[in-house]
Amino acid sequence: MTIPQTQKAAQVLSPGESFSVSIRDDMPVPEPGPNEVLIKLSCTGLWYAPPPTFSSFSSNVRAALNWATYNPIIGHEGIGTIIKAHSSLSSSALASVGERQRNTSRHVPGTLQQFVVADARFLTRIPAGLREEVAAPLLCAGLTMVGAIDKLDSSVFLRDAPKDEEEGGFWVVISGSGGGLGHIGVQIATRIKGYRVIAIDSGEEKRRLSLECGAEAFIDFKTTPEMDVSARVRELTGGEGAHATIVVPGTKEAFEMAPNVVRNMGVIVCVGLPRNEVELPISATMCAARGISIIGSSVGSEEQMTELLQYALDGRIEPVVKVYEFEDTADLINGFIDDAITGKVVVKIPQ
């Protein structure tokens, strides 16, 4: 195809409380450098973790609100076709990965544009037959959750815990269960791992989605006081609490709740992204006395990504996706801030 010199892109301007999103059509099309390829994008997911309070958001909203330094072009769940490669690209070069980590939409421009340059060593082939709008959310939201849930396998206590219902089952609490990450996590935990999930979120729509994805119970944190949430979890789990909890919302309140919903020797997996100054509000004495493990989880491996895409192709994992136009980007980010969006958002890239 003929590659144009300029392209359409969405830029975040004046990051902060008065941010805006500008749709421009005069952005230069980049040239791939060593080990890089140029990709013509067809769609991109927008990352979103639901907030119990105003202090918890995804990387896209963190960028808009200037909570950390991001590239003006955000987005990092892009799907597209390679249309050009750098002349130095070779199989031997692709086998060598030793550079410092560079994150899409932070260190390099993101996927809310028509063309993007990417390091060929970190691309994932999308299986034939898998719809692009289904694959896109799995590239970050899905991989984040499978990476977090797979970390439970390394716990000796959890590995030896009974998995079948006759023995009580392996209980996992997933907070933020109705959001873009959470609802995929519920599916992975129940359909792939066979865990029994207690979902925590708010609102009837997120209750319905969480239960449809496989959760055995739903607790609405907005209508249930914190101590009643933990009491309800203990009631469901035979008085012990869950074996583990995945904390998707990155708020102080969500992390304060975490040790109260797990049993002694339980595991807390930290996924959410709060403001940088928010620290874990958990007593060191409590961790030691109760034997609680705290694990941080960012994303997952290439092997996990390949497996997850195959699960989607087989129909075992089905992200709930709403597809929007490119011009809706600003409204979508504001919708994230207002916690007005359920499931996963995918934006169509102009062709």
Automatic annotation (TrEMBL):
- Kindly list the GO CC terms recorded for this protein: cytoplasm
Residue stretches making up the Enoyl reductase (ER) domain? 16-347
What GO MF terms are annotated? alcohol dehydrogenase (NAD+) activity; metal ion binding
The protein here is known as Quinone oxidoreductase
Q: Which family does it belong to?
A: Belongs to the zinc-containing alcohol dehydrogenase family.
Spell out the PANTHER family in the cross-references: ALCOHOL DEHYDROGENASE 1-RELATED (PTHR42940), DEHYDROGENASE FAMILY OXIDOREDUCTASE, PUTATIVE (JCVI)-RELATED (PTHR42940:SF2)
State the InterPro entries in the record: ADH-like_C, ER, GroES-like_sf, NAD(P)-bd_dom_sf
Q: Which UniProt keywords apply?
A: Metal-binding, NAD, Oxidoreductase, Zinc
Q: Which cofactor does it need?
A: Zn(2+)
